[in-house]
């Protein structure tokens, strides 16, 4: 039966529904953001600063309502940002105008995005809660690769796939690390506002680190850096405590586990 479900429409509807609650949430802190605070976290800021993105063409995949895209533009990047949610892109355009920042926002399924020629990018960026929405990482990695100029760089920061094997309370291992079938479930609220009156059906997929890296390498990219971190920069899971600034760990676990990873890959000169 799962094969007959329109996963794209399910997920698009869910993300459209989240947008107004996310914009109003303290999680996203939109008032402070409009005043100039960056929405980017220290892990990706360090990686992007090394690349000196000012003046470079930057593609932001799965941009949601645009905070990170606008933050990239504030760093000097010439930014194009893509998301499949109509509501998110509409609000992103409004937010960029309110912030007096120029970003080219595009409403499109990331998997069909296909720039070419002068439209290719120096830097492609994606972060936090991204690839779990795709059943096929080969198609996703192909988009990343074909969007990059020769010599371009892909920067990715996301939650470690091991985290997605736990149940919602982070008490039991409930999902396969090697997950071939979609996980179809009803979610209550949203990570940014757990009290939001939302009951959306979503479909997600777990992808292990080997699958992620192999897909990108098979798409012609070269791994330059891979790191794992024992914390989340967001307070977005159950039972977290903030041990250090923007370093949240599970309060009840007595061992350190990977919660985050970063990847930097380059498109080689052939």
Kindly describe this structure.
By secondary structure, the protein is α/β, with parallel strands linked by helices. It has one domain (2-266): Rossmann fold (3-Layer(aba) Sandwich), CATH 3.40.50. Helices cover 28% and strands 26% of the residues. The chain has seven helices and eleven strands. It has helices spanning 7-24, 30-34, 42-51, 67-74, 86-99, 137-146, 209-218, and strands at 57-61, 78-83, 104-107, 121-127, 148-159, 183-188, 199-204, 222-229, 240-244, 247-250, 260-266. A seven-stranded mixed beta sheet has the order 3-2-1-4-5-11-8, sandwiched between helices. Strands 6-7 form a two-stranded antiparallel ribbon. A hairpin with a 2-residue loop joins strand 9 and strand 10 (247-250). Helix 1 packs parallel to helix 5 (86-99) and helix 6 crosses helix 7 (209-218). The chain starts with 6 loop residues before the first helix and ends with a strand. The model has no long low-confidence stretch (mean pLDDT 96).
Question: In a few lines, what is going on in this structure?
Answer:
The chain has helices spanning 7-24, 30-34, 42-51, 67-74, 86-99, 137-146, 209-218; strands spanning 57-61, 78-83, 104-107, 121-127, 148-159, 183-188, 199-204, 222-229, 240-244, 247-250, 260-266. By secondary structure, it is α/β, with parallel strands linked by helices.
Any chance you could write out the topology, listing elements then pairs?
Elements: H1 7-24, H2 30-34, H3 42-51, E1 57-61, H4 67-74, E2 78-83, H5 86-99, E3 104-107, E4 121-127, H6 137-146, E5 148-159, E6 183-188, E7 199-204, H7 209-218, E8 222-229, E9 240-244, E10 247-250, E11 260-266
Parallel strand pairs: 1-2, 1-4, 2-3, 4-5
Antiparallel strand pairs: 5-11, 6-7, 8-11, 9-10
């Amino acid at each position: 039966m799962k094969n007959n479900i329109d996963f794209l429409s399910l997920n698009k509807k869910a993300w459209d529904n989240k947008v107004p609650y996310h914009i109003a949430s303290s999680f996203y802190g939109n008032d402070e953001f409009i005043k100039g605070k960056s929405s980017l976290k220290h892990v990706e800021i360090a990686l992007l600063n090394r690349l000196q993105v000012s003046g470079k063409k930057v593609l932001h995949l799965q941009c949601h309502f645009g905070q990170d895209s606008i933050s990239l533009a504030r760093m000097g990047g010439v930014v194009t940002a893509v998301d499949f949610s109509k509501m998110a892109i509409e609000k992103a355009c409004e937010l960029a105008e309110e912030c007096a920042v120029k970003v080219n926002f595009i409403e499109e399924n990331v998997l069909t995005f296909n720039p070419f020629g002068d439209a290719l990018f120096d830097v492609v960026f994606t972060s936090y809660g991204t690839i779990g929405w795709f059943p096929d990482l080969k198609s996703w990695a192909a988009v990343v690769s074909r969007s990059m100029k020769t010599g371009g760089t892909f920067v990715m920061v996301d939650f470690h796939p091991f985290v997605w094997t736990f149940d919602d309370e982070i008490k039991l291992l409930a999902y396969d690390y090697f997950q071939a079938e979609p996980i179809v479930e009803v979610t209550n609220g949203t990570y940014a506002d757990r009290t939001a009156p939302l009951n959306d059906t979503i479909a997600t997929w777990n992808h292990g680190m080997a699958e992620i890296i192999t897909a990108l390498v098979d798409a012609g990219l070269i791994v330059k850096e891979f790191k794992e971190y024992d914390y989340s920069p967001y307070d977005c899971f159950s039972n977290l405590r903030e041990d250090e600034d923007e370093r949240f760990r599970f309060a009840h676990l007595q061992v350190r586990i990977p919660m985050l990873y970063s990847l930097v890959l380059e498109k080689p000169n052939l």
